[in-house]
Amino acid sequence: MSDSLALCYLIKKCPSVLTAEEIDPFICFVRDELEAKIEPAQLKRVLTTADPRFLLYVLALCLRSVEEIDRTVAFLSRYGGIDLIVRRPVILNYDLDGQLIPRIKVLVKLSGADEDATGNVLRKFLAILNYTVKHTEGHVEFLRSFVGLTDPEIFKIFRVFPSVVSASRERKLRPRIEFLKQCGLETDDI
Question: Which SMART domains does the UniProt record give (predicted)?
């Protein structure tokens, strides 16, 4: 898609992008702060695929300082950085110290401090960052206690099937695991 077609598509998708006050800080941030860090094709992807609400009302760009955004980008760089932000711009809305770091720390701990493997999980299922530490740790504890898995085994499941975090422990996971146990499967088989 050419630049002019991408711009036409964006304006057609969300005409208020031309007049919204909130878009100016976004454009300035991208131009001034991310110039060397984001490819034109990535920016085009953000502008043409992101829900316009996230471009017009991006709290991170309106309420956060450039320093806070830089800290977030620097922290995420170990796990996929700009590519993660391009795929899900709303993660800039997350509080770095209160949300992102603790949520990613759970995955890093499970991985045995393997940042590359943690980045792979994030790239595969970025929505995992939507879940609170309490929620994710609840799934981890369930897999430890009910199934008898170790942290490396749990992380292996997260690498292959990260959306397991989104499944209800009681309605989905427990009945299925009970069924597998009734079929004679052991923890290693499950």
Answer: Mterf
Do the Cβ atoms of 55 and 26 come closer than 8 Å?
Answer: yes
Sign of CA dihedral 32, 34, 37, 42: negative
Instruction: Count Cβ atoms within 10 A of the Cβ of residue 178 and give its class: 0-12 exposed, 13-18 middle, 19 or more buried.
Output: exposed
- The four Cα atoms 121, 127, 128, 129 give a dihedral, to 10 degrees, of 110
Distance between CA atoms of residues 110 and 48, nearest Å: 35
| CA distances, 7 to each of 17, 35, 45, 103, 183 (Å) | 10, 18, 11, 35, 56
pLDDT of residue 180: 79
Flag residues of the chain having pLDDT under 50.
Answer: 56-62
Query: What is the pTM for the complete model shown?
Result: 0.65
Boundaries of every domain in the chain: 1-80, 94-190
Q: Count of alpha carbons within 13 Å of 114, Cβ hemisphere only?
A: 14
